[in-house]
User: What shape does this take?
Amino acid sequence: MFERSRKGEHALLIQPYSGGPPDEGASEEFTDLARSAGASIAALLTARIDRPNPATLIGSGKLEEVKAAADATGADLILVNFPLSPGQERNLEKHLQRRVLDRTGLILDIFAQRARSHEGKLQVELAQLRHMATRLVRGWTHLERQRGGSIGLRGPGETQLETDRRLLQKRVEQLQKRLEKVEVQRTQMRRARVRSELPRVALVGYTNAGKSTLFNALTGADAYAADQLFATLDPTVRRVDLSGGSVVLADTVGFVRDLPHELVAAFRSTLSEAREADLLLHVIDAADPVRNDRIGQVDEVLQEIGAGDIPQILVFNKIDRIEGAQPRRDQPSEGRERVWLSARDNLGLDLLQAVLAERLGMQRVRGALHLPSRAARLHARLHALGAIRAESHNDEGWQLDIDMALADAQRLAAQADGHLLEPLLPAQENEPWQ
Assistant: This one.
């Protein structure tokens, strides 16, 4: 039996492909993923697979080639850019005498390194345990041991494998309960933001497109940003003041092609910031030669999590990497307006803020307003929004001098006593803001 090593940072990469030439973009991304996990790259081999071998994925000839390359380069880890079945992973390890990780296992390892919040760590551990649950039958020799044999412990007992499975299931149940509590708290916080009447905007995009850098530039926050895949995992939320009002801006985890389904399920909280947003800022690396493919891949993930119908603004970031490029704003293309900027150099942020204000209906309304005494609740809401510039009170109610965002006025106007605000609203825009 093969005793599975816990070590392994010098990696041999295998890029499977079928039909046509290998996808260089997929190979480059997988190499970046390996480096993001802390691996040094020994070599990268491509393997054409028209009919996957159910036992080892690749054929016997390619398997011998991989073994020879691993021996020659001293690689102690094999990374496969393909979702392996538990049996395939076990058989590859047995033949290659090295630890083997598939794409999902590699991304989970990166997530484990990057999660910082309590919730993020719980989500990563849960995803890892669920992934591990199907892979307990391996070459570890300790799994063959039986309990029993000593005084008081004789009998059939249970195998170490069964013990591991039972303990793993118990831990999964514990994590699920803890995450449910955290999710309740996050939902309460999200509801509080909804009650604040502030529009919600979420940053989405392919990993390493510069979302966190843009988030910091817009909010003045210090969210971690680095030139690496999955630099940030935990959702970060801040309030941003624009010329016509304020919005709640959320930074979310970056996407990659073929994002494993178990990762989508595990990170439902950070993805829910995108799913429940009023507007998405789809951040794109403008200098990426395959940026159009990246846009399509992000759109696919958004559809998968139920956010495909939310309005978007395409934000082409990193124009500082394109010679002669200048900040600009393009007319909507297929319903999505485009803004070209550099978050790192603070170029074009004013254009993005202007587009945000327009798309979120942040024109302002000003004027005098009379509220009767029975409208005390509306009066309090106006105070909470900072909409009252001056006021006086008599027996009939309040005389107010109002200055507020049109979006806030329209939302309040849709409520029970909010119709009192209608004299302030433009005649052609009396419908509540959506």
In short: Residues 118-129+157-196 form one domain. Confidence is low (pLDDT under 50) at residues 138-155, 428-434. The first helix runs from residue 24 to 36. The chain has four domains: 10-111, 118-129+157-196, 198-359, 364-429.
